[in-house]
Amino acid sequence: MFIFMKCRWMILFISFFLSINLYAKIEVIIIDPGHGGKDPGAVDKKLGLQEKDINLEIAIYLKSFIETKMPFIKVVMTRKDDTFLSLEERTKIANSYISSKAIFVSIHTNSSVDKKNYTEGIEVFYYDNSLEKIEESRMNEIKNSDTKNFSNTLQDPISIMINEKLKVDSKALGENIAESLSIKSKEPIRRVAANSFFVVSYPMVPSVLVEVGFIMNKKITEQQYKKKLAKGIFQGILSFLKKESKF
Ligand SMILES: [Zn+2]
Q1: Residue partners of 180: CB distance under 8 A and separation at least 6
Q2: Distance 48 CA to ligand 1 centre (A)
Q3: Per-residue pLDDT tens digits for 52-82
């Protein structure tokens, strides 16, 4: 009996140590609450909601989940209040952690003109450089923006390799988040797809943009529901970190 107890404690100790080690491989989680300040994002006048506020509330819950459960990971918020931040500024924050092991999660709330058919579901987007169309729009975006310094690093072989790794990791992160967000919110997954959104295209760390649900969904007004959404994202990050030993 004593030996059994001792073994059990030993196993518990080893698994605790291993899990600490595994999570310790990731050093920084950057949370990006979409929109803010003069940019409200999606608006639902009937419910009196602005996307920027919902995104920030979910981001704050997510930050507290990470800090409680993984205190050894540094949490960075691109904005902590109702401040306007350009997409370039958000990306620059992400890219200031290239030398750390970091991931970037942008939080958004969806909207649709077709209010009847699109009130439920989760969408997660990640960067995929293998899609010609996306690569083309990414290059166009570079040409038309003040981010020319990003373009210089895209062509060389090392950048191509880094891009490939970013794509694989971003996709895996997105799939894990969509899955656990769907379980927590009981909302269907509409899609986990490659996209050329600025905040998933330019960070040089694994990046995803999460549309947690639709703004016209009344549940989004409940604090408990927003907490659930944050928990879903948190558990998705956690299962990604547990599965991935690449970091
Ligand atoms: Zn948005």
Answers
A1: 232, 233, 235, 236, 239
A2: 16
A3: 999 999 999 999 999 999 999 999 999 999 9
Query: Is residue 11 assigned to a domain?
Result: no
Q: Residue 160 falls within a domain, yes or no? A: yes
Tokens 């800090």, residue? 67
Instruction: For residue 112, tell me if it sits in a domain.
Output: yes
C-alpha to C-alpha distances, 33 to 41, 85, 153, nearest whole angstrom = 11, 10, 27
Cα of 80 from ligand 1 centre, angstroms: 16
The first and second tokens of residue 133, run together, are 């169309």
Q: In angstroms, what is the span from residue 109 Cα to ligand 1's centroid?
A: 6
* Global pTM exceeds 0.90: no
Ligand 1 center from residue 35 Cα (angstroms): 6
Residue 193 forms part of a structural domain: yes
Residue 96 belongs to domain spanning: 28-243
